[in-house]
Design goal:
- It is a single chain.
- The protein has helices spanning 2-7, 10-69, 72-75, 78-85, 92-104, 135-138, 196-203, 281-284, 286-313, 315-332, 348-396, 398-414, 418-435, 444-461, 486-498, 531-547, 551-556, 561-572; strands spanning 113-120, 125-127, 153-159, 169-178, 185-194, 212-216, 222-224, 251-256, 259-267, 274-280, 441-443, 466-471, 480-482, 505-514, 517-524, 577-583, 587-595.
- By secondary structure, the protein is an alpha+beta fold.
- α13 (418-435) runs antiparallel to α14.
- The longest helix has 60 residues, at 10-69.
């Protein structure tokens, strides 16, 4: 997604962004509208079906009540009372009269009456003679196996087995008959009704173009449905089983045969049956489809406007970026005098231009700084080369001194003067070691060796004034140190402690390691360094540490403490170098700190 986005120009990126935002907005509006409108449709559907089912229930209840009343006079006749309670034996003529009464009953005023029967408490049955019933015929009817009810009972739809109307769907009404003498239950009147009246009533009350009602018994037997094959069948044994019938007074949304439908149910108190209304959702939500079409049209219109207008409006944002890009290209080409147009304000592009100008100024300053540093480095290299050449030239001069010392050594040897031989030999070795510039770092063994030669010369000069004590563990002999680190410090000790002292001066040298550092301590028990000289030395050491090598200090103390500290500090940095402490009348301690590293 990022790769695709990076390939698009800002104009089309903004167009796609606005288009996406518009689409999401329309979708969200559509979703909220659909939820709200669906809820409204359900409320309207509930109101419509509630009123319609109340009318249907009232009509059906009134109809069933009228049919039931038509049997009351029939049940009060003397012959029927005598037949049911067996108060006396009836002859064939009296039984025939009962059948005639059934045939002439007021119930026959209703054309939908399919059959009328008398059933006694002991399961004796008399049917209207026009049906030509025989006992095996009515024994198959569901009401025959039911006990005589104490109040009116409705049997849901089933198929009858009459000889004349076999297979017809009917409902049955069982009306109780009580004895006039003692009010005991002696039998019932059974009326079978066709569904023509219920069908006519429900078909007249359609909802929408294809919406319809159906009637269910309390055990979910289909009392009536427009599909006659489903009548009298359990709901679970039909394709309607996928529909969840909602509770009384509520509305549900279901999917049936690929369509969304609305379903509601209302019960009848008189029959105990439920009238279920089923209507396709789209027929009740015609306005929703119109709203969807309007939303799609609005989105198409917005998309066209976005595609046409956004690229034009985006120039307001693209042009400042292009101008800034042009300025950046000039800076990349080396033109550091380029500046972006800047006007004071809160506009983000102006803030960006201001930041760009600051960046260019800082970059220009840094380039000048880098150029100055490079120039300084170049000058330093030139001075280093000059110093190296000067050192090579200075190396030539000591050759005369080496040769002269060798001649003096030979003369002393010829005259058997050991002091002259020793002095000349040691001095020559010290000068050779000092003048050799090929090695910058040497081992502590080499440094101690040349120090011993210097101390031998000092003893010749001051045979009774001092002694030296060098305590070094051999494990430190291979440690690397800066060349000429010890000799200048010991030379200062000889100069200030031995030469000016009264005698019995001791110069001690001790070496140890501390964490990852090598520490060399050179101590004497002389009179100490004068306070003003000490302050000057401490100030020089601090100045070297703070500001690097100082040519003035090096010239003032070419081989002294400052010179040694400068060379160690410039080589290794902090915290390496010399630490000086001195106390008047008690002596001086010079501590030299090196990194602890050994020769390979």
């Amino acid at each position: 997604m990022r790769r695709l986005w990076s390939k698009l120009s800002i104009k089309w990126s903004m167009a796609m962004l606005f288009l996406g935002v518009s689409l999401i907005s329309m979708i969200l509006v559509g979703v909220f509208f659909h939820i709200y409108y669906s809820h409204t449709v359900k409320q309207d559907f509930h109101k419509v079906t509630d009123e319609a089912t109340k009318r249907l229930n009232d009509h059906i209840e009134f109809y069933l009540e009228q049919v039931s009343r038509s049997t009351r006079t029939l049940a009060d006749s003397d012959l029927i009372q005598a037949w049911m309670d067996k108060s006396r034996e009836l002859n064939l003529f009296e039984v025939d009269e009962i059948e005639t009464q059934l045939r002439r009953s007021v119930a026959f005023q209703y054309s939908e009456v399919v059959g009328i029967f008398l059933k006694s408490a002991d399961n004796r049955v008399i049917a209207a003679p026009s049906f030509n019933f025989k006992e095996p015929d009515y024994m198959a009817e569901p009401w025959y196996h039911l006990p005589v009810p104490e109040k009116r009972v409705l049997l849901p739809t089933y198929r009858i087995n009459y000889p004349q109307s076999q297979g017809m769907s009917v409902i049955s009404i069982m009306m109780p008959v009580y004895s006039r003498s003692d009010l005991t239950l002696i039998g019932c009147v059974v009326i079978d009704l066709s569904l023509s009246e219920i069908e006519t009533t429900l078909e007249r009350s359609k909802i929408g173009k294809s919406g319809h009602f159906m009637m269910l018994s309390d055990d979910d037997t289909i009392v009536y449905h427009s599909n006659s094959e489903w009548r009298g069948t359990s709901l679970t044994r039909t394709p309607l089983s996928v529909i969840h019938i909602p509770q009384e007074g509520s509305v549900g949304t279901e999917f049936f045969e690929g369509k969304q439908i609305l379903v509601s149910a209302h019960s009848s108190k008189a029959t105990g049956w439920r009238v279920v209304a089923i209507v396709p959702f789209e027929e009740m939500a015609g306005g929703l489809n119109t709203a969807k079409s309007s939303a799609i049209s609005a989105f198409v219109l917005i998309a066209v406007m976005v595609i046409l207008i956004v690229p034009v409006l985006s120039n307001l944002f693209v042009e400042p970026i292009l101008r800034l890009e042009s300025s950046m290209n000039k800076v990349a080409a080396g033109d550091y005098d380029t500046r972006a147009d800047f006007q004071q304000g809160s506009n983000e592009f102006q803030k960006l231009n201001n930041s760009f100008n600051k960046m260019v100024r800082q970059l220009e300053g840094q380039l000048h700084t880098i150029a100055d540093l490079k120039l300084q480095e170049l000058h330093a290299r030139l001075r280093q080369k000059e110093a190296y050449i000067q050192a090579l030239q200075n190396q030539i001069n000591p050759h005369l001194l080496y040769n002269s010392l060798d001649v003096i050594k030979s003369i002393g040897y010829l005259h058997n003067n050991e002091l002259v031989v020793s002095m000349a030999g040691n001095l020559a070795e010290v000068y050779r070691y000092t003048a050799k510039i090929s090695d910058y770092e040497v081992t502590l063994r080499e440094e101690l060796t040349i120090l011993e030669k210097y101390l031998e010369m000092a003893r010749i000069r001051f045979p009774k004034k001092f002694r030296s004590d060098i305590t070094v563990d051999p494990k430190y002999y291979s440690c690397l140190v800066i060349k000429l680190t010890l000799q200048p410090i010991v030379e200062n000790a000889v100069k200030y402690a031995v030469h000016s002292g009264d005698g019995d001066t001791v110069i001690s040298i001790r070496v140890y390691d501390e964490v990852n550092d090598l520490v060399i301590e050179i101590a004497d028990n002389g009179d100490g360094i004068p306070e003003n000289t000490k302050s000057e030395l401490v100030s020089d050491l601090r100045a070297i540490t703070m500001n690097g090598h100082s040519p003035e200090i090096a010239r003032r103390n070419s081989l002294g403490i400052s010179n040694v500290h400068s060379r160690i500090f410039l080589k290794y940095g902090e915290p390496y170098g010399i630490n000086l402490s001195s106390c008047h009348g008690r002596g001086t301690l010079v501590s030299i700190r090196h990194p602890l590293q050994f020769a390979g």
